[in-house]
């Protein structure tokens, strides 16, 4: 969406990426546009999970609209929205997406969240919803594999192709985190604090999860144990997942989690999922790469007027707040790097092969 208002805040031009991510666009088998279910075969079930609160439910509508439009009809989709309390009117609008072959259910995870909330270190940038994905394996034993997606995503490819990746003995499949890998300060944080190779640090907003292995190998217990040992304060749940799953990660092409942060701009035919992470939000700025896809699907939802109002009322003060937020994140990263009792300096390699 473009505005003729020259006083509108702009996202490009500040805190731009200083690294070009060089990872495969496609896997060895080709474009991965379609799933491999042959015509006439049994319609398998694909479970998809989201975690949200009231603030992000309107954006979930855009994700679901794009998911419905671009995914194969050869599967039944079971969509679960994990939450700890949402507005009834918003819930009703999201439930309108339910149809034959595409069911949407809301699942309250208040109790499991209470069990660990005392150990969580939260910041303004994150909410407790970011930890909900940790509970999926235990709460849904009927599934051996599932997809987790953040709500600030637009699905432009066939999600069944993502589901059909063979995880083998890997715990998880994820794409390189452009938000981390595009900035040297965050790369150094991953090397120093997490003790990991930043090139293989995955973003937790788009995941294919081996739920069977999570249960069999006691992943939740490992998470709870690590949570007691050390509180990651910068990337939080993403730190925990990368540390716990290290050496057991299927690395996805970055087209499955392409962000506006990266320097390279891809054509639509190469994109599978666009993820508007960090402060790259098309509902605040009109110069965000790939923002046109967000508005394309927003116009088809009941939340369009609400989102258009956010866009129209975005101000320079919003831009300044976002700038400060990103400056604070980088300052925190430098502070964590300097700590002598950081996770890896203190414990070394506790997980992985």
Q: How many structural domains? A: 1
Largest sheet: 7 strands, mixed
Strands in their spatial order, largest beta sheet: 3-2-1-4-7-6-8
From the alpha carbons, calculate the radius of gyration and give it in angstroms: 20 Å
CATH topology: Spore Coat Polysaccharide Biosynthesis Protein SpsA, Chain A
Number of strands: 9
Which range best describes the helical content: under 10%, 10-25%, 25-40%, 40-55%, 55-70% or over 70%?
A: 25-40%
Can you identify the CATH superfamily?
Spore Coat Polysaccharide Biosynthesis Protein SpsA, Chain A
What class do helices, strands and sheet pairing give? alpha/beta
Question: Helical stretch count?
Answer: 14
Structural write-up:
- The protein has 353 residues and is of the alpha/beta class.
- The protein has a single domain, classed as Spore Coat Polysaccharide Biosynthesis Protein SpsA, Chain A (Alpha-Beta Complex), CATH 3.90.550.10.
- It has 14 helices and nine strands.
- The chain has helices at 57-70, 88-95, 110-117, 136-139, 159-163, 178-181, 184-194, 211-216, 219-229, 237-245, 291-298, 304-312, 316-338, 343-347, and strands spanning 45-51, 76-83, 102-108, 146-149, 153-155, 172-176, 202-209, 249-251, 273-275.
- The strands form two sheets. The protein has a seven-stranded mixed sheet with strand order 3-2-1-4-7-6-8, sandwiched between helices.
- α1 packs parallel to α2 and α7 (184-194) runs parallel beside α13.
- The longest helix has 23 residues, at 316-338.
- The termini are far apart.
